[in-house]
Design goal:
Its cofactor is heme. GO terms for molecular function: peroxidase activity. 28% of the residues lie in helices and 24% in strands. The chain has one domain: Beta Barrel (Catalase HpII,  Chain A, domain 1). Strands 1, 2, 3, 4, 5, 6, 7, 8, 9 and 10 form a 10-stranded antiparallel sheet that branches. It is built from 7 helices and 10 strands. By secondary structure, the protein is α+β, with helices and mostly antiparallel strands. It is globular. Bound molecules: protoporphyrin IX containing FE. Protoporphyrin IX containing FE binds next to helix 1, strand 2, strand 3, strand 4 and helix 2.
Length: 311
C-alpha cells in the first residue's frame, strides 16, 4: 500500500466514525443508505454510447444487473417518508465475469467538495445538535461556515417524498470519462430517467404512508410487470467542472439515451452483502479526479468491513 492509500484509508475510517457519531451506529448495516432492497434487472444498451466508449456493457448486448434502492439514512428502520434522498445503485455483470457499479441519488449535487470538508461539515452538524435544534437550524449553521455546501443542502431541502422508487430521477453527481477505440475522451455524468415519469406525494398523502411504503409499492408495481428506467449520459463541454461534486453542469448540455434498465423482481437477501463501489469502472470508462468520488472507494470498504463483521 503506498502512502497515499494509507492516508486516504485513515481518512475513510475518520469519515465513517464521524457518520456513526452524528447519525448513529447500527451494527451489521451499511453506514449510509442502511435501509434498502435489492432487485434483479436486465440492462439493454442501444448502441448510442459505442462511439464514445469501449465499455462492454454499453455496446449492443444486454447484461444482467442488480439494483439496490435505498433511503439515505443510517437508520435501517426509519420510516421511508423521513429519509428525503433516495439511492439507486446498479451493478452490471460484465461479459468477463466482473462487475461495474453506477451509484446514483435523487440529488443533482453533493454538499461537500473534499473528504476533509465532508468530515468538518459533519463535525459542525454535531456541534449544533443541541436540544431543540431542528434540521433547518443545523443546515443553517453549516451553510454559514461552508459556502460550498449551500446549493447541496438547499437541494436536500427541496426534495419531496416520491410516490415510488420507480418515479424518481437519479443522478451520478460525479463526472466520469468515456474513452473510445481511438483513445478519445469525453466527460460525462449519468442520469436514470424513470419511464413511469416523475411523481411525488402531496403533504396529505405523506401522512397516510406506512413505514415501508416504498418497498410495498414496488412489489405491487412489479406484480404487474417490469419497471423501466432509461440511462442517459450528459456530455460535458470544455470548462465544465469534472472534479467538483458541489457544482452542477449547465442544464442545456446534450443528453444521449444509451440504454434501458428493466427491473423484474426482488433478489435474494444475500445480495445485500455486495458493495456497490462507484469507482469500479471497466475498460472504456475512467473516474474523474473528483476527490469525493475517489474517496468513496475507501469509505465504502470501511463500511463493508464493519457490517460484514457484525459491527
Ligand atoms: C464523502 C462522501 C461520501 C461518503 C463518506 C459516503 C459514505 C457512504 C457509506 C459508508 C455507504 C455504505 C457503503 C456500504 O456499506 O456498502 C454509502 C452508501 C451509499 N452512498 Fe455514499 N458516501 C459519500 C458520498 C456519496 C455521494 C456523493 C453519493 C451520490 C451519488 C452517495 C450515494 C450513496 C448511495 C446511493 C449508497 C447506497 C449504495 C448501496 O445501495 O449499496 N454517496 N455511502
Amino acid at each position: 500500500m503506498d502512502n497515499k492509500n494509507v492516508e486516504s484509508s485513515g481518512l475513510a475510517v475518520e469519515a465513517v466514525d464521524s457518520i456513526e457519531e452524528v447519525a448513529g451506529k447500527y451494527p451489521s448495516y451499511r453506514r449510509a443508505h442502511a435501509k434498502g432492497v435489492v432487485y434483479h434487472a436486465v440492462f439493454t444498451p442501444n448502441g448510442q454510447a459505442a462511439s464514445l466508449t469501449t465499455a462492454p456493457h454499453l455496446q449492443n448486448h444486454e447484461v444482467q444487473a442488480l439494483v439496490r434502492f435505498s433511503n439515505s439514512s443510517t437508520n435501517p428502520s426509519i420510516p421511508d417518508v423521513f429519509s428525503p434522498a433516495k439511492g439507486m445503485a446498479v451493478q452490471f455483470e460484465l461479459p468477463d465475469g466482473g462487475v461495474t457499479s453506477l451509484v446514483t441519488i435523487t440529488l443533482p449535487i453533493f454538499f461537500a467538495k473534499t473528504p476533509q470538508s465532508f468530515i468538518d461539515i459533519l463535525g459542525t452538524i454535531k456541534e449544533n445538535s443541541v436540544e431543540g435544534a431542528t434540521t433547518a437550524d443545523k443546515f443553517k449553521a453549516v451553510m454559514e461556515k461552508y459556502e460550498e455546501s449551500r446549493a447541496g443542502l438547499q437541494a436536500v431541502k427541496m426534495l419531496q417524498p416520491p410516490l415510488s422508487f420507480a418515479t424518481n430521477r437519479y443522478h451520478s453527481i460525479h463526472a466520469y470519462y468515456f474513452i473510445n477505440s481511438n483513445g478519445e475522451r469525453q466527460a460525462v455524468k449519468y442520469e436514470w430517467e424513470p419511464e413511469a415519469g416523475l411523481h411525488y406525494l402531496t403533504n396529505e398523502e405523506v401522512k397516510a404512508q406506512s413505514p415501508n411504503y416504498l418497498e410495498d409499492e414496488l412489489a405491487e408495481r412489479l406484480s404487474k410487470g417490469p419497471v423501466a428506467f432509461q440511462l442517459s449520459v450528459v456530455l460535458g463541454q470544455e470548462g465544465d467542472p469534472t472534479d467538483d461534486p458541489t457544482s452542477a453542469w449547465p442544464e442545456d448540455r446534450e443528453r444521449i439515451v444509451v440504454g434501458e434498465l428493466s427491473i423484474t423482481g426482488i433478489a435474494d437477501e444475500k445480495a445485500q452483502d455486495r458493495v456497490f463501489d462507484p469507482t469500479d469502472v471497466p475498460t472504456g470508462i475512467e473516474c474523474s479526479k473528483d476527490p469525493i468520488l475517489n474517496f468513496r472507494h475507501d469509505a465504502y470498504a470501511v463500511s463493508h468491513d464493519r457490517r460484514s463483521q457484525g459491527q
